[in-house]
Amino acid sequence: MAMAVRPLRHMLVRFAALVTLLPLGLSALLGSLWLLPQAEQEIASYHRQLALTIAGQVDSFFKTSRVTAVSVAGVIDHDEHVATVQKAIATNLQLLKRLRAMYLVDAGGRVRAVGVNKMSAALQNDLLGLDLSRNELFQKAKSTGAEQWSDSFLSVVGGGLSVAVAVPTGTNVVIAEFDLAYLSEFLQQTTPVSDQVIMLIDRRGQVVADQAGTWTAQQLNLSNIPLIRDRLNSSKEVHGRLVLNGVEMVGSLHRIGTVDWWVLVARPTQTAYRQLWTSLGIMAVALSATTLAAFGVAMVLTRRMSQRFESLAEHAQLITRGGAATDWPHSNVAEFNALADSLQKMSGSLHERARLLEDEIAERQQVQEQLHEKALLLEQEVAERVLAEQSLQVKQTQLETLNLTLEDRVRQELAKNREKDAIMIQQGRLAAMGEMISNIAHQWRQPLNELAIMVQTLRLEYDDNLLNGERIDEFTDDCMNTIQHMSQTINTFRDFFKQNRAVQQFDLSTAITATANLLQASLQAAGISLKLDLQPGCLLQGQPNDFSQVVLNILNNARDALLTRAVPAPAVTVTTQQVQGMAQITVEDNGGGIAADIVDKIFDPYFTTKHKAQGTGLGLYISKKIIEENFNGTIEVESCSGGTRFRIVVPVKAPDLQQQNSA
C-alpha cells in the first residue's frame, strides 16, 4: 500500500501544533488525574471529620439518655416497690426534658409503673396494666437479657419521632422513650454552612433528624439511594455521590455505634467543587495564552524552514527532467549547505550512471534475442507433455467415477444401519418408559395413602372440634410436602426422557443417584436392597439421559433376575471410582450369575432370557452402543461369587465428542 505523501510545510505546522498543544494536554491530564482526586480527597476528609464529630455528639446523646433507664433499673434492684419506682421515674422526667415517657414492665409484659412528660396523672394511670408482651423491643430485651435500642417510631403519647431503650433488670424491663426533636435542634446549631445537609438515618433508612427539620417532617426514607442502601447493613463509613430532592450532592456516611444509626453529611456538588473549577479555569486561560504565543513563533520558524526545502526540491526536479543544476541554494544553516553539496555530487553521479545504463540495455537486448530462440524449442516440448497429461487426466476421471459409486454404496449401507439402530434405540426407550411408569406407580402409592389418611384425620378432628389454625397449617404443610415429592417424581421422569442431544459435562454420581431414585420404590416393594458407593466429583462429557438409560437397563435386569430366582436377602450394589483419568462404574447383584453358555450373547440385539411380554432383548445391546459410541468406553459382564457384575469404563474427558457434536 502506497504511503501517503504530504507537503513539508503541513507536516511542520502539525508538529508545531503538537509541540505547543502537548503541555496544554499534559496540564489537563494533570488536573484530571491529580488535582481533581486531590480535591475530592479533601472534600471527603472534611465531610468525614464533620460526620465523625456529629456522630460522637449524637452517640453521647444516646449514652446520656440511657443513664435514666439504667438509674431506674438500679432503683428496682434495691427496692421493687411501685411507689419508689414511680417516684424515680417522675424525677427523671423532670431532670431530662428529652425524656418523653418511661415504663416499668413486669415479666408478663404488664406496665406496673409509668411516667409521661406533660400528661396528667389520671391519663398516666390509664396506662397502668397495659399489655406490652407483644412489643418487639420488650421481647428482644427479655430474650437477650441485654440493653436494646428500637428503631425510630411515631410516639403514641406525645406525637413526633421517638426512640426507645429497654434495660432488663431481674424479671422486669425498664423502657425509656426519648424525643428526637432535640437532635434536629442540635444539628441546626452545628451546621457550618447554609447549604450543608446533615441528617440522622436509622437502620431502615428513615430520616429521624436533620438541621432544618424539613426532611424529618416529611418522614422521608432514603433506603432507595444506592449510597445509603449499600451501607445500612454494614459498619464501614463511606464517601460518594448521591441525589437528594433532585440535587446531585457529595457526602459521607458515619455509623453511630450505640443505636446502629448513620450520620449523613452532604453538600451540593456544584458548591463543593466551586473553588476547584475556579482555579482550573484560571490555569486554563493562562495555558491557552502561552500556547497561542508559542504556536505563533513556531509558525514563523516553520515557514522559513519549508521555503529552504522547497528551493532544494525545485533544483532536484530540474535534474529529474534531464537538466543540469549548478547554482544550488545555500544559507546560514550548516545542515542545509551540506545537503545542497550532497545533492550536487549526487547529480553528477546520476549522469554517469545513466550513460552506463544505456550500454547495459544494448547488451540485454542481444541476450533477449537468444532467449527467444530457446523459448520456441521449449514450447514444443511443453505441448508434448500437455498431451500426455490429458491422457492421464482421462484415466484419473474414470477412476474417480468408480470411487464415487463405491462411496454411494457404502453411504447407503451406513444409512440403513443407522436407521435400524435408531429403531432399536427407540424401542429400548419405549421399554424403559414402561418400566419408569411402573416405578412411578410404586413411588406414588405411599404418598397417595398418606394424603388419604391426612384427609380422613382432618375430617375426624373437625367433627371433634379439635381443629384450629395451627393444626390446619400442619395439615397443609404435610400435604404440600407430599405433593411436592410427587411433583419431583414427575420432573425426574420428564428430565430422563428429555430429547436433548447436546453433548455436555455432567456429574457421574448425580446421574446415578437420580436414576436410582426412580427405581427405589420398585426395589423396596420387591424387598431388594440398593447400596450406592459413589465417588464425588467425577465428571463425564456426553448426554446424561443416555448414560442414565444404561444404568436403568442394568438395574432393571438385576431386579428381574433377583425376583425370578427368589434370592434370600436380595441386594444390588453400585460403586464408582476414578483411576488414571478413567471412570469405573460397577453394578453387582447376588442373583446367581449368568450361565456360561449365554454370557457372550447378552449384548446381542433381541437376545433375552425373559418372556416376550417382559423384555425386548434390546436393553443391553443399546447400553453397549451408547457406552462405546457416545462415551468412547467399554462395558463388560462377568459372573462372580453367586452374582453378576457389570463393569463400565469411560474416560473422564472425551475430546473427540466435541468434534462429533460440531460435525
From TrEMBL:
Transmembrane region(s): 276-301
A Pfam family reported for this protein in Swiss-Prot or TrEMBL: dCache_1
Predominant location: membrane
Record GO terms (molecular function): phosphorelay sensor kinase activity
Membrane-topology annotation of the record: Multi-pass membrane protein
Keyword presence, Phosphoprotein: yes
Catalytic activity: ATP + protein L-histidine = ADP + protein N-phospho-L-histidine
Top-rank taxon, per record: Bacteria
Keyword Kinase appears in the UniProt entry: yes
Xref: InterPro entries: dCache_1, HAMP_dom, HATPase_C_sf, HATPase_dom, His_kinase_dom, HisK_dim/P_dom, HisK_dim/P_sf, Sig_transdc_His_kin-like_C
GO terms for cellular component: plasma membrane
Location within or outside the cell: Cell membrane
Class of the enzyme per the UniProt entry, highest EC level: transferase
EC number(s) from the headed UniProt entry: 2.7.13.3
The name this protein goes by in its record: histidine kinase
Lineage: Bacteria, Pseudomonadati, Thermodesulfobacteriota, Desulfuromonadia, Geobacterales
